[in-house]
Amino acid sequence: MVLTNVVGVFVFLFVPLFFYWRFPSTPLQSIPANVREFICLQLYGRLLLTREFFRAILLGVPLPKNWLQILRFLGIALPWTMVFGSFLEVFAWWASCSWHWRGYGQFRAVFAIGGYPTVDLILCVAFFFMVSFQYFRGEFSSFRNDRST
After folding, report:
1. Would you state the pLDDT for residue 98?
2. Which residues of the chain are under the pLDDT cut of 70?
3. What is the per-residue pLDDT across 94-127, written as a single tens digit (0 to 9) for each?
């Protein structure tokens, strides 16, 4: 079990982080006007309509063309989301097992699906999207600064 966890952490966290450290952002031929266009050009190699963009981000259709940039992105987004999720789970354990907060248990029960509390999963997905936006906003800012010099 421990070996499986070590291999899982290595594959899902350190391999993408290695790609982030090792490989630079893909140089772009055209200059994007905003973060959405930057994401489209980095991941898909073309500009997507707004409807297509949100479908691609939320549903994964169409699949990205630049997998190196996906690995770079996951190298930042996954570790931070896992840290956030770990803090959530530690807090949930303390709140329910140690502090015996009934209100917290009732709050988690509101979001339960089939008896399984999903509030942590919902918060982790929301956090993942926030970290993703911050990552791409930083990459876009860096791209603009490099273009201006």
Report:
1. 86
2. 149
3. 998 888 888 888 888 888 888 888 999 999 999 9
* Integer Cα distance of 76 and 66 in angstroms: 16
* Residue in the block written with tokens 């070996």: 3
The phi and psi torsions of 145 (rounded to 5 degrees) equal: -65, -40
Q: Is the dihedral of CA 104, 108, 109, 110 positive or negative?
A: positive
Report the C-alpha gap between 28 and 42 in whole angstroms.
8
Cβ neighbours for 28, distance < 8 A, ≥ 6 positions apart? 38, 41, 42, 143
* Angle CA 84–85–90, to nearest 5: 100
Rounded CA-CA distance 32/57 in Å is: 18
- Could you give phi then psi for residue 63, rounded to 5 degrees? -70, 145
